[in-house]
Amino acid sequence: MRATIIHAPGDIRVENAPEPTITAPTDAVIRTVATCVCGSDLWSYRGVLPIAEPWAIGHEYVGVVEEVGSEVSTVRPGQFVIGSFVASDNTCPNCRAGYQTSCLHAQQVNGAQAEYVRIPIADGTLVATPEQPDEELIPSLLTLSDVMGTGWYAARAAEIRPGSTAVVVGDGAVGLSGVIAAKELGAERIIAMSRHESRQKLALEFGATDIVTERGEEGVARVKELTNGVGADSVLECVGTQESMRQGLQSARPGGNVGFVGFPHGTQIDGQELFFSHVGLRGGLAPVRSYLPDLIQRVFDGRINPGKVFDLSLPLDQAAEGYKAMDQRRAIKTLLRP
Amino acid sequence: MRATIIHAPGDIRVENAPEPTITAPTDAVIRTVATCVCGSDLWSYRGVLPIAEPWAIGHEYVGVVEEVGSEVSTVRPGQFVIGSFVASDNTCPNCRAGYQTSCLHAQQVNGAQAEYVRIPIADGTLVATPEQPDEELIPSLLTLSDVMGTGWYAARAAEIRPGSTAVVVGDGAVGLSGVIAAKELGAERIIAMSRHESRQKLALEFGATDIVTERGEEGVARVKELTNGVGADSVLECVGTQESMRQGLQSARPGGNVGFVGFPHGTQIDGQELFFSHVGLRGGLAPVRSYLPDLIQRVFDGRINPGKVFDLSLPLDQAAEGYKAMDQRRAIKTLLRP
Fold this sequence. Notes:
homodimer, Quinone Oxidoreductase, Chain A, domain 1, Rossmann fold, 2 domains, seven-stranded mixed β-sheet, 19 strands, 30% helix, NAD(P)-bd_dom_sf (chains A, B), GroES-like_sf (chains A, B), ADH_Zn_CS (chains A, B), Zinc-dependent alcohol dehydrogenase family protein (chains A, B), oxidoreductase (chains A, B)
């Protein structure tokens, strides 16, 4: 089969590789229908994360079950499935608490930018769609594997409730998904912080009510102007830098909440600053498994269309170009078709 | 009148001072019935906070209203009242959200370790008891002015719910009050981290179900043993050091919450560590005003008896000895009687 291998920073190749097989009775093998490039894949691509040896990259996927191990009982060959980027048993105390990315038996999914992918602990990880989806739903279903679920978690961690005022820091695919989540969870005012015209447009289409182009102290001042002088109820931090975290914390009102899903790059949070802010803070790898049944239904119902974050769609063999376009910010997010 | 003045680190004197007067139409003057020494008073006493010039110290108080300004309408002379250590208008957006210590017009109360004290924005700050309290209720009512309200906030910020498992880090007066709060809010298992026998005893009396004497990694391991291997639902961090914050964060389960009320001394929180913990974190100066009506009723009903945290009671004139006993850890908390 064809699989995407990262050899070194900037060196992405689609190569022939052996098809994955069932290695544990809890595994499933999926024929990938669509996969995509994640912002976090760029950490390796940009040399931020070291690459000890070439490896099969990719962790977002939708596809059709090809084969299951003898202990798999919740999905069967032929079903269309979506799974999280982290495999989880969905039965341990952390899974039952809704934090499947902290599963006591969590395993990272890799090798998804390929024609077939092996998914460990399939019963806990995969969710079948109610029926075979129409072609047009595929991109949106694919986002549920990571990016839309991550935006959803940001909104939940930020405790958005009906009537809330929300700020979304970051206009990448996760931030834009966060706008969708904020809208679905009932936020009345959704302030998207963005400087890119195409992303502003998509944010507005997804439900943003205001765009703030300022950053830093000016950005905070602008948010306060829009929020009764005190700041927002909920802030979704979808970037992961020291600056974006401060932007997030300072944009929330006392008693408000920041959900942070941007992977923190050297971020330190000052205890006194957090203390005096009265802001609640929760982050982490999104437990997207927890949201799959609900979000699949919202996609099937046509309520949400997060697939629009894909502004580039390429055959799998052109994965290298997909990475390059995202790295150069020519694309928000690249979908790959095996 | 007699008032407690701090002149320099370690130099506490009770001196003659002019009685406070109404300076704004929203002020009240209270005849102090009881006051006390706060752990935070020790920061000045120990030279951690600079003392630019001698000042009238003290911010915890109960007493009888002596005089009110022309615009005060919710309390009247002769009423027994309790107020927060931070004066608040109780009408601004932050107050209405339940965060009176972030009131847009907040003022610090000082000079309470004295026979009389002036309270600004009295309507928003003071709450009258339903009747004149019996003498035996005075110590418990006094704790509502700060320390019991602070333990309550820690428990609320840690989102204790009926059936929760809670860990209390810190066995000072706030930590012990946190045990009471955890119990009242329905925690089923309350793990007090304490190495002092007398404080362990009080913690057990207040509702703790387990005592953990270990600290650091050993302390975390012990907590996990007691909590299904994953950590506690709720952690009350009542110390404020880097070590106690880490203890708190590592003792909470993924999806759990840490409420931190120990004033952070140079504490830095690592963004990645918080990210991977999936723990929610909220701290701050407790909005004790918010809890006064409820907590007053619990004291009057005999449900809670937080006054037991006072293990030393002295006449106001012996305030210096009261500070010394707390500084030397001979006393948990000192009550002063004008």
